[in-house]
Automatic annotation (TrEMBL):
Its EC number is 2.3.3.21. Keywords: Amino-acid biosynthesis, Branched-chain amino acid biosynthesis, Isoleucine biosynthesis, Transferase. This is Citramalate synthase. It catalyses: pyruvate + acetyl-CoA + H2O = (3R)-citramalate + CoA + H(+). It comes from Terrihabitans rhizophilus. Pathway: Amino-acid biosynthesis; L-isoleucine biosynthesis; 2-oxobutanoate from pyruvate: step 1/3. Residues 10-276 form the Pyruvate carboxyltransferase domain.
Amino acid sequence: MGSGAVKERLYLFDTTLRDGQQTAGVDFSVEEKTKLATLLAAMGVDYVEGGFPGANPTDTAFFAEAHDLGSTKLTAFGMTKRAGRSASNDPVLQGVLSAKADAFCFVAKSWDYHVEFALGVTLDENLASIRETVTLAVQNGREVMIDCEHFFDGYKANPEYALDCARAAHEAGARWVVLCDTNGGTLPNEVSRIVGEVAARIPGSHLGIHAHDDTGCAVANSLAAVQAGVRQIQGTLNGLGERCGNANLISLIPTLKLKPHFAETFEIGISEEGLRGITALSRQLDEMLNRNADRHAPYVGTNAFATKAGIHASAILKDPRTYEHVAPATVGNRRRLLVSDQGGKSNLLAELERVGIPLGKDDPAVSRLLDTVKERETAGYAYEGAQASFELLARRTLGDVPSFFEVESFRTSVELRHNAQGELATVCEAVVKVSVRGESLMSVAEGIGPVNALDLALRKDLGGYQPFIRDLRLVDYKVRILDGGTEAVTRVLIESSDESGETWTTIGVSPNIIDASFQALIDSVTYKLLKSGAPAP
Ligand SMILES: CC(=O)SCCNC(=O)CCNC(=O)[C@H](O)C(C)(C)COP(=O)(O)OP(=O)(O)OC[C@H]1O[C@@H](n2cnc3c(N)ncnc32)[C@H](O)[C@@H]1OP(=O)(O)O
Ligand SMILES: CC(=O)C(=O)O
């Protein structure tokens, strides 16, 4: 399609707050649902499915209040009426219809086996439930859609019946008939064929896709469905959802916006600015769920544009398109050229420039530093995840790091003994002796573990440098045993932070875990002194 041609509208339906809530370990509060719905609306998705009013107190409370989502339609989920009672006499359906929502989405069975076995009703009774539910909801004055559960499995078993269910919904006035790959076992070639056959009978402008990720194909299946005719995609942020999750909107949206095949044919409601916010949105959700973001997530992971190999880095510096399929800034992410034993001078120079040490490729300090990095990585260091320690190593190579303090000795002990209450308890103590400007300072501290005690003792008294480390906090501590066995080497990574909100990671490596931890602590304190502009002794 030429750039001047009119594009077809493709609608995005987010079900993070409904199918996403069916993820093991995920439980949104009303406040979190409200916040996510607002963020999704601000990004420009067309529908936000908020939950199943009547099914649980959170969803009922969420739909008891009106939510102003602008042009985004807040959708309440429900199920078709039960057989054997009229739609107006079904309390579950009535609970959904009384929700403060702009649209309704009802799940309906469309696999004959499920109708007879799971629902225990006849095929005709199920069709009547679909028709009556849609008719009553349409009379209620809101937009209505039907999720045809197990549509693809149903179509493979009994195509005419699956189609009858879809047709019943469409003819009763459903705006959308959504074809669901509920068990997530369908592959892209099957989705293409089946959607193509359905779109020959029901206009694609009324069809949607809801794909689960049990074969890792939910995104591919959604794209295949669009190519075969559907015009609504259902999915979730970060691919949350029942079992292996749903189609990941955080991957789909950039693909639809940036890949010419889709971008030149379809219009979605997400602006370029909205697209630039997608990395932040993905990470906000992980923060809310108190879990680590997937570093390898397409488009938005911290590694999505991270390059370790020297050959790649050298070419990226000449033109990023050599190894990047899209520009990281378009999705609000950033390029990272990592320093490691897989890298060459190009990685090193890029990282040095980022931390404000511009050196020329021919500077002998660069070769010296590269040799040191490779030697240390062979010994167990991994600078790609410890950028503060890398900066210190680089500055030390250039003679640029003052010796703020020197460690004269440290000692730590773990003891099981009776405490003041007469109870047996483990007590950890540390003693650290440092010399600052020729003055010897000794500090003692107790901690919840030996490393905690060492950290507290080290930071207790650094003489005149104390004000510079007042707001230093350790936020994460990770230990990795390399090579295993009794000869094992321990790698410790410590993440620190301060009131400015900056976080930095430092590394220590030693056969002894306490020694490795202490190295990482020293680097953290030194980095903090350096960044705070503490004067040289
Ligand atoms: C594929 C999907 O993701 S669909 C969405 C699934 N999500 C959820 O189930 C989460 C919310 N669900 C719930 O809180 C509860 O299941 C409720 C409140 C809906 C129902 O609770 P209960 O009445 O205790 O029923 P229960 O959960 O044991 O079983 C579900 C019932 O719904 C019936 N049912 C399932 N799908 C449909 C449908 N499309 N139309 C009508 N009835 C249906 C089942 O046959 C079963 O009834 P039965 O036990 O009489 O056979
Ligand atoms: C409706 C739904 O979530 C499904 O069929 O997977």
